[in-house]
Known about the structure:
Elements: H1 2-15, H2 18-34, H3 36-40, H4 45-64, E1 70-76, E2 80-85, E3 94-95, E4 100-101, H5 102-108, H6 132-137, E5 139-148, E6 151-158, E7 161-162, E8 167-171, E9 176-183, H7 195-208, E10 213-218, E11 229-233, H8 239-246, E12 258-264, E13 267-275, E14 282-287, E15 290-291, E16 295-296, H9 297-316, E17 336-342, E18 349-350, E19 356-357, H10 361-380, H11 382-411, E20 436-441, H12 443-452, E21 458-463, H13 475-480, H14 482-491, E22 513-517, H15 522-538, H16 540-544, E23 548-551, E24 556-560, E25 563-567, H17 570-581, E26 589-592, H18 601-609, E27 616-618, H19 624-635, H20 639-648
Parallel strand pairs: 1-10, 14-17, 16-19, 20-21, 20-22, 22-23
Antiparallel strand pairs: 1-2, 2-9, 3-4, 5-6, 5-9, 6-7, 6-8, 10-11, 12-13, 13-17, 14-15, 18-19, 23-27, 24-25, 24-26
The protein binds 3-[3-(1H-pyrrolo[2,3-b]pyridin-5-yl)phenyl]propanoic acid.
Amino acid sequence: MAETAIEMSEKKKAAASYSAESIQVLEGLEAVRKRPAMYIGDIGLKGLHHLVYEVVDNSIDEALAGHCDTIEVRILPGNSISVKDNGRGIPVDMHAKEKRSALEVVMTVLHAGGKFDKDSYKVSGGLHGVGVSCVNALSSHMRTEVFRDGKSYVQEYAMGKPQYPVKETGTSDQSGTVQTFTPDASIFQVTEYNFDTLSTRLRELAYLNKGIRLTLIDERQPLDDETFRTETYLSEEGLVEFVRYLDGTRQPLIEDVIHMTGEKQSIPVEIAMVYNDSFNENIHSYVNNINTHEGGTHLAGFRRGLTRTLKKYADNSGATAKLKFEISGDDFREGLTAVISVKVAEPQFEGQTKTKLGNNEVMGAVDMAVSEMLENYLEEHPKDAKQIVDKVILAAQARHAARKARELVQRKGAFSGGGLPGKLADCSSRDASACELFLVEGDSAGGTAKQGRNREFQAILPLRGKILNVEKAMQHKILDNEEIRNIYTALGVHIGTDDDPKALNLEKLRYHKIIIMCDADVDGSHIQTLIMTFFYRHMQPLIENGYLYIATPPLYLVRKGNQQTYCWTETEREAAVEKFKAGKETSVNVQRYKGLGEMNAEQLWETTMDPSYRTLRQVTIENGAEADRIFSMLMGDDVPPRREFIEKNAVYAKLDV
Ligand code: 0RA
């Protein structure tokens, strides 16, 4: 693709003047400004952060080509971003035919990025692979500085248009590139960068590309007189460390992380995996540094190789001789945490979010890699091998028991559509796309919500106290839990089939908004996390389809006389008090809402349930690996890290995983 764009413009150029050619180029970037979502996914927070990833990816490519080992990302005051690397610097030489510098072409021609370095094995490149010219097009201002061959150069752009030809600015004994850009506020819905979002991605990149030092510096406000919040990521061991990081708070079942790296059928494959004592499967797969959360051929190859190799070993050891039923693929992956990273020259991305690898040749390569790696490991570590095999057999037995439990529940009618839970106050509409289900903490708040709702399209299901911590429970225990059964029944979905125990029949889903409504206190946020964990582990497709939300009840009611206003933050409260006082010494009444129960039905409707006034926060999975780690930490046995996380994120709104 990259090649075509340039060749076409070169042909045209033969007949066209320089200025005509410039116009042609501007049209290219104009297209990006007209339909930004087509190039970077969306124009919200995701797209905004995507700009940074796109620029960083160019530096990662330079590092993978062996010319760069340090990348610094700064969030500047005003939410501009600067990305600096110590690579060779983007070439600045004039192109006789182009009549402008290589740098200008890279910065202003769509997909021109790789053109000048055909030899480099370009495998990085963002999800949309759009190149730095897209970032330029979507920035109100961009400046590129190049340090190369003892000199320094600069060029600036406004909305992608060069403001002057590349100019030499002086001498330099360093080499590298600094890209500084300001996202265009007339294009993006939001322009404020989130430190944690960027740091999560840079940490991930450090694990995926060992040996590259990535630093993130927040220069928006200093922590004190002279320090900025700064985090540096550098991984010596790559995926091995990544897996240890992901499993930080879980109890390992085997001592080492099983690891292999190498090329199979000329496809670079790296795998790291470990077993822990949990019941979850946590496999994260990457293609060219992109998280493929819809999976694909590399994941299929991994599963196939893992199942075959472990099964063969278990059979040969005699451990499975007495089993009266087949071990299923899932049983081999219970308690498994793994990261698979492959580099594919021409990846075919498929699926709803274009994060599913389609290249068939990758399946065999990964299958081969994992088989070889595991066979060796099992032979050399008989003690660990026995632990793994025992765990698999236990998983198979539990699954067998779970199936019986499911059949029992189904017979009782809970999943056959025969009767909704008694506690559900259903809505009258049957149009799922218009219907909302509020999951409400406690019977009393549930009662208020029932009175306050619009019964046409809003249903209420009160949940009693704390629902089961699914992080630590086995499948059949989960189905024993009445609150969880009520959620399944109210939603109308059932739990899966023997073929695919995690499948959900989403077409039967009765509400397309599922809204968690909890108290705005510590207990409330804990319950909210329990419910979110349940959805994350057991109803993930529902989150992926954008059906899960969190209600945001107000924290304060500020009153004077017959005037009143609701406030969601401290700043809003202070402003409201100020406004009511209006410089006078009058008394203003501030009520702190500690729980939903302190509001009457009308207040709850007005502030939290009325679609024309409320704010819902949609739950999304920004980063699968990090979401997984956070849920296992929050819900696990290890108390100190959990406390630290909750203290750091006192406002629970932060957990938008
Ligand atoms: C193509 C050729 C060469 C360097 C780069 C691209 C390059 C691009 C970026 C983008 C961010 N940082 C970068 N660093 C380097 C150099 C070719 C040569 O010197 O022979």
